[in-house]
Write a structure and sequence with these properties.
mainly alpha, single chain
Length: 210
């Protein structure tokens, strides 16, 4: 590899790292103050640069939140797809998806908060149509899994899968509002605590239908 090519790749990697650092800082301020309420100047201050310098990296505030959300969702779905393709039974798949969800929160806590707080308004913009598609795919994935669990005899048949889906969705992802990396419990430990509570309620052998 020639020196010029190595320099170019090194520069590209440096730019990518810097971009990720900026987005991480910007995501935190969007999550804390709200996307609409945060000015470009405030986003730049959070990232430690001048407002005008931010446009060297991003052409608009919209582009910033788009990249924050799409990066989070792309990584989440990549992890989900690996679990779903592994051929596990419903109980082990549920365990793996919940664990994967908490890992996503650990990596993208601010993005999850933005997603929860801003999606309703962002989807009015055609650019963010992928948020609605992701929501529908997420719901379908979980409901199919819960139905599979009932068919396998692993999950209770007397419970409504739609309600179980909403319960799991809301109890897991709301953790982004309080979870802080480096706390007393890490993401994996919290996932196991949640799974103990969820599975105790929905497993068929724990609560046989009457």
């Amino acid at each position: 590899m020639c020196a010029r090519r190595r320099d170019a790749e090194g520069t590209a990697a440096t730019r990518a790292t810097r971009r990720a650092e900026l987005l991480s800082a910007i995501a935190e301020v969007f999550a804390a103050r709200g996307y609409a309420a945060t000015t470009v100047r405030e986003a730049a201050e959070a990232a430690g640069i001048l407002g005008g310098s931010l446009y060297y990296h991003f052409d608009s505030k919209e582009s910033m939140v788009d990249e924050i959300l799409s990066t989070f969702l792309d990584e989440m779905w990549t992890d989900y797809e690996k679990v779903l393709a592994s051929g596990l039974d419903a109980t082990r798949t549920l365990r793996a998806l919940v664990a994967s969800s908490f890992k996503s929160i650990e990596r993208h806590r601010a993005a999850v908060v933005i997603y929860q707080n801003e999606s309703k308004h962002l989807v009015e913009n055609e650019r963010f149509g992928y948020l609605t598609k992701s929501q529908h795919r997420f719901e379908s994935t979980w409901k199919d899994l819960l139905k599979q669990g009932v068919e396998e005899g692993a999950f209770r048949s007397d419970l409504n899968t739609g309600l179980i889906y909403r319960f799991i969705r809301d109890t897991v992802w709301v953790a982004a509002s309080w979870y802080q990396p480096g706390g007393r419990l890490d993401a994996e430990e919290i996932a196991q605590q949640y799974l103990a509570m969820v599975l105790e309620g929905i497993q068929a052998n724990q609560h046989p239908a009457t």
